[in-house]
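User: Please predict the structure of the protein below. I'd like the answer in structure-token form so I can feed it into my own downstream comparison script.

Assistant: Understood. Taking the following sequence of 166 residues as input:
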Amino acid sequence: MVRWLGAVCPPVDGSAAHVDHVLLSTVDILAADLVCTHADHTGAVARTVMTARLNHEPTAAVLAELADRLGLPAVWVAGPPEGARCVRFPGQEALTGVHSAAEIVAASAIDEVVGIGVAVDSPIDTRGFLRPTFTEGRLVLLVEQAAGGVLRPVEIAAPHQCCGGH
């Protein structure tokens, strides 16, 4: 039985990698094999929302502890929305270093590697940080050209701040 749990995440300042780490340590009690985030713009202030795929039914105590950690209860959802970024997925730990697109797909839950303005026929330097997105129900890693004849993921762990950080 696969089910998805969704919850609003507490605000966290820092880099993408730091925010992901804080979120994952918060939801680790769920033992979710796949965790995604997306921005919810339906309210006056945008919020980060988490969806977690579970292969088991969590106990009432686990759900209560999660609600305590997040500050709000989690709810059952249909799955991650289009464009949700995946911060935990099966096979992620094995994808450090340089790999071909075929190796990435074979070793992980990523369904496809798509190049932005470039053919995906060069090695991909993962830089130890992959954040594929849900596109039409599939987990897709977007890559772009990098220096040295390799490709790199579009989303990087520590992007620079634009415009002086304002």
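That's the full token string. The CA atoms of residues 111 and 138 lie 6 Å apart.
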